[in-house]
């Protein structure tokens, strides 16, 4: 472009350069949906502020150098205004989202309290005058305890109500991010609301809450909704910026003499202008239909005339659920509702990452219990069912896929033997963790049934959290609370040593391996049970099998998820992980050696579990090996053998896993939860926020109301 401009008249060249310069400011402002990629980016607001000053100075310098600019000085000034608005919005958004400013924005006005000196002066005066005087304390009503804008509701929530309640509780609990403490009134109000909620409604409210958190920390939403004396300054500036660009396009099209410029330059200019207009129109559309704009409707029970547009939009944003069975086929396999919302309208990732130690040590292929249902698959299936062709199509498609998979499998194995060792050495040297995550971490679709189980478990515990001490004890439980509820004393004592007598990261590894050791051998038992006919009460048997299979899947999902967090999300787990990574590597080394001696091949997970369970563990591993190695492989075998003696082991294990995840969620730093929101969200963040709503944690410490002293003078 520089060479091309050199062939032009220098005067024309300076005019166009001056006109194009403000576009740099415009695009440095960035899109409304992303001002920061990570929480740390917000702390760099000062650098962006200085950048704004330098860039604006450069644009002004170029403009001055182009004077006298007969054709383009007005469009240049208009674009300069638009660029300053957009870049200023981004800088302001970063400033407001920086943690110090974010904390300051939630602090109330300084409260000096009652005038103690004046009260005591009057008290002393009356005492000296021998008047019968006493000081009486009365409870002062909480200034914040005002009626909610939204009346309490006990039945299912409508879409507009979901957004309104989410915004209400976001305004209350956003202080969690900066470790503020809350009053018991706020705890009671939140807990009472969520206790009467259906689990799906609670999930939808928390989804939107996290969406508000993302908008506040990573987008321009706070700036765009900025109000000063009931004037929406953010809206005015945004429409002013669009008006400037539209006016520039109009002036350039109708008023500017374009014969002075070459066709290529005119094309570039139109592209810049139309691109800027398109981006602004899309941004305004997203602003109008954002959750924050929807929350501005004061009364969802009596919405304004234009609210049906929002209602129709929220129907698209509502979670879609698809009923599916497990990939492992059993006769009485339970059906689970899996999240199938299209990615375009999904509020979070909607998946649970899984990592498995035994599968990793055997170099087995990734597996998942459920396939991801997609929206087009759901629609296609509905059409086939309406035409009564689904069964036939399903059988044909399954047969064809099996044949193709067999062919591709043999090709992959052949190519893998040739090329994989070379690639493995290269990537192991450069980015081992990244490659391990790519190759061995699988994704499990989010299950509504799992969420219902989590919700009910936390709800049950919240009923006991009446005092701060009890709430703290429950949130700090690492399985002992679940064992107290689920098993008798002799069994409980044997299991507790694998929970509270070991560090948290060790308990994660112990229970993860034990879950696998119980899971794979149980596959064969389940299949044998499904083939056995129970003529006396087949319905009860089927219900029992479905319940057991459901608890198995819950335990397996949470077990693999927690290992994924321990190994691949060390920042999130740093507050509780201890030496988890060292323990994991030592355990993998011992497992790898054991599997190598046993001539175990990839994808022989079940056989590996059987071999491990076949090892005698009469003497504790530490007594034989000492404590140099941090491996917990055979300690986990001992735990698995204890669990296998129990009839309701899967129910116990699923409850223990919920507690282990809860412990991590409440003890991880709040900033790591906030940082994770920008990466799609994790299940552990939903745990964290749901626990806060149920009053489980250490963040509720302020008594309700304050004491007000009065002087009472007797007669």
UniProtKB/TrEMBL annotation:
<keyword id="KW-1133">Transmembrane helix</keyword>
<dbReference type="InterPro" id="IPR007658">
    <property type="entry name" value="DUF594"/>
</dbReference>
<keyword id="KW-0812">Transmembrane</keyword>
<feature type="transmembrane region" description="Helical">
    <location>
        <begin position="266"/>
        <end position="289"/>
    </location>
</feature>
<feature type="domain" description="DUF4220">
    <location>
        <begin position="8"/>
        <end position="360"/>
    </location>
</feature>
<dbReference type="InterPro" id="IPR025315">
    <property type="entry name" value="DUF4220"/>
</dbReference>
<keyword id="KW-0472">Membrane</keyword>
<protein>
    <recommendedName>
        <fullName>DUF4220 domain-containing protein</fullName>
    </recommendedName>
</protein>
<dbReference type="Pfam" id="PF04578">
    <property type="entry name" value="DUF594"/>
</dbReference>
<feature type="region of interest" description="Disordered">
    <location>
        <begin position="528"/>
        <end position="548"/>
    </location>
</feature>
<feature type="transmembrane region" description="Helical">
    <location>
        <begin position="235"/>
        <end position="254"/>
    </location>
</feature>
<dbReference type="Pfam" id="PF13968">
    <property type="entry name" value="DUF4220"/>
</dbReference>
């Amino acid at each position: 472009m520089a060479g091309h401009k050199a062939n032009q008249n220098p005067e024309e060249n300076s005019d166009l350069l001056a006109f194009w310069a403000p576009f740099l400011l415009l695009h440095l402002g960035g899109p409304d949906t992303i001002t920061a990629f990570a929480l740390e980016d917000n702390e760099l607001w000062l650098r962006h502020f200085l950048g704004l000053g330098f860039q604006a100075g450069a644009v002004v310098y170029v403009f001055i150098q182009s004077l006298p600019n007969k054709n383009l000085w007005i469009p240049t000034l208009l674009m300069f205004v638009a660029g300053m608005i957009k870049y200023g919005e981004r800088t302001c958004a970063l400033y407001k989202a920086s943690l110090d400013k974010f904390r300051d924005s939630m602090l109330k006005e300084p409260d000096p309290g009652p005038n103690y000196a004046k009260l005591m002066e009057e008290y002393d005066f009356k005492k000296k005058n021998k008047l019968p005087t006493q000081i009486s304390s009365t409870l002062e009503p909480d200034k914040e305890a005002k009626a909610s804008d939204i009346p309490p509701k006990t039945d299912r929530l409508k879409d507009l109500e979901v957004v309104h309640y989410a915004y209400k509780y976001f305004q209350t609990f956003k202080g969690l991010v900066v470790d503020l403490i809350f009053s018991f009134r706020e705890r009671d109000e939140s807990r009472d609301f969520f206790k009467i909620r259906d689990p799906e409604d609670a999930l939808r409210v928390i989804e939107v809450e996290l969406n508000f958190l993302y908008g506040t920390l990573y987008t321009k939403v706070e700036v765009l909704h900025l109000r000063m004396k009931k004037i929406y300054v953010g809206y005015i500036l945004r429409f002013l910026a669009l008006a400037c660009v539209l006016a520039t396009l109009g002036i350039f099209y109708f008023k500017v003499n374009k014969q002075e410029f070459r066709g290529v330059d005119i094309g570039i200019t139109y592209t810049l202008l139309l691109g800027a207009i398109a981006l602004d129109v899309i941004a305004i559309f997203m602003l109008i239909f954002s959750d924050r704009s929807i929350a501005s409707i004061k009364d969802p029970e009596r919405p304004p005339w234009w609210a049906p547009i929002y209602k129709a939009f929220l129907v698209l944003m509502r979670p879609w659920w698809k009923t599916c069975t497990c990939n492992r086929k059993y006769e009485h396999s339970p059906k689970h509702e899996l999240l199938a919302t299209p990615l375009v309208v999904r509020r979070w990732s909607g998946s649970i990452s899984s990592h498995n130690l035994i599968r990793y040590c055997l170099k087995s292929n990734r597996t998942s219990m459920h396939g991801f249902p997609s929206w087009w698959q759901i629609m296609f299936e509905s059409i086939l069912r309406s035409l009564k062709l689904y069964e036939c199509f399903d059988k044909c498609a399954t047969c064809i896929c099996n044949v193709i998979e067999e062919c591709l499998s043999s090709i992959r194995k052949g190519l893998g033997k040739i090329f994989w060792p070379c690639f493995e050495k290269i990537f192991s040297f450069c980015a081992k963790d990244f490659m391990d995550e790519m190759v061995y971490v699988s994704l499990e679709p989010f299950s509504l049934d799992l969420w219902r189980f989590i919700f009910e478990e936390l709800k049950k515990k919240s009923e006991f959290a009446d005092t701060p001490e009890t709430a703290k004890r429950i949130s700090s439980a690492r399985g002992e609370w679940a064992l107290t509820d689920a098993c008798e004393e002799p069994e409980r004592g044997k299991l507790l040593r694998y929970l509270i007598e070991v560090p948290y990261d060790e308990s994660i590894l112990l229970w993860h391996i034990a879950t696998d050791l119980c899971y794979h051998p149980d596959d064969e038992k389940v299949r044998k049970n499904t083939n056995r006919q129970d003529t006396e009460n087949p319905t009860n048997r089927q219900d029992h099998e479905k319940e057991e299979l459901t608890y198995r899947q819950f335990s397996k999902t949470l077990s693999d998820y927690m290992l994924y967090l321990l190994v691949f999300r060390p920042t999130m787990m740093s507050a509780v992980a201890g030496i988890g990574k060292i323990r994991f590597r030592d355990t993998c080394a011992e497992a790898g050696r054991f599997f190598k001696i046993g001539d175990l091949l990839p994808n022989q997970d079940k056989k590996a579990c059987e071999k491990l369970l076949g090892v005698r563990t009469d003497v504790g591993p530490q007594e034989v090996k000492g404590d140099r190695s941090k491996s917990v492989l055979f300690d986990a075998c001992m735990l698995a053998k204890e669990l296998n003696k129990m009839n309701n082991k899967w129910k116990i294990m699923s409850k223990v896993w919920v507690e282990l995840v809860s412990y991590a969620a409440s003890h991880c730093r709040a900033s790591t939860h906030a940082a994770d929101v920008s990466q799609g969200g994790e299940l552990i963040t939903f745990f964290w926020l749901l626990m806060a709503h149920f009053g489980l944690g250490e963040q509720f410490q302020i008594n309700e109301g304050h004491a007000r002293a009065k002087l009472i003078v007797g007669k």
